[in-house]
Amino acid sequence: MRELLRTNDHVALSLAMALLKDAGIECVMFDTHAAIIEGSISAIQKRMMVLDEDHAEARELLVGAELLDSRDPPRGGPA
Q1: What letter does residue 46 receive in the DSSP assignment?
Q2: CB 25 within 8 A of CB 66
Q3: DSSP 40
Q4: How much is the pTM?
Q5: Core vs surface per residue 28-45: b (16+ CB within 10 A) or e
């Protein structure tokens, strides 16, 4: 699995999940419980993870939706 998106923005996470679901790409959220426990200071961001083989397509979708910047290097391992 590779990290696709890291944020505390619930709207961005919801939109990203809907876009990926519509494209048939499964995603998993990491750090959800830790982010809830730490409270409202937003110190711990939630991470959206996708399978390695889906990462490029998922990234392209989120760049097209302006949820990711195409100039930012991919997270979570080699491209």
Answers
A1: E
A2: no
A3: S
A4: 0.81
A5: eeeeeeebeeeeeeeebe
Q: Please state, in angstroms and rounded to a whole number, the distance separating the CA atoms of residues 1 and 53.
A: 9
- Give the pLDDT confidence of 19-78 residue by residue, as tens digits: 999 999 999 999 887 766 666 666 788 899 999 999 999 999 999 999 998 887 777 665
pLDDT tens string 29-44? 998 877 666 666 667 8
Cα 77–Cα 44–Cα 5 angle in degrees, nearest 5: 40
Look up tokens 């991919």; give the residue.
74
The strand order across the sheet containing 2-7 reads 2-7, 46-50, 27-30
Residues in the chain: 79
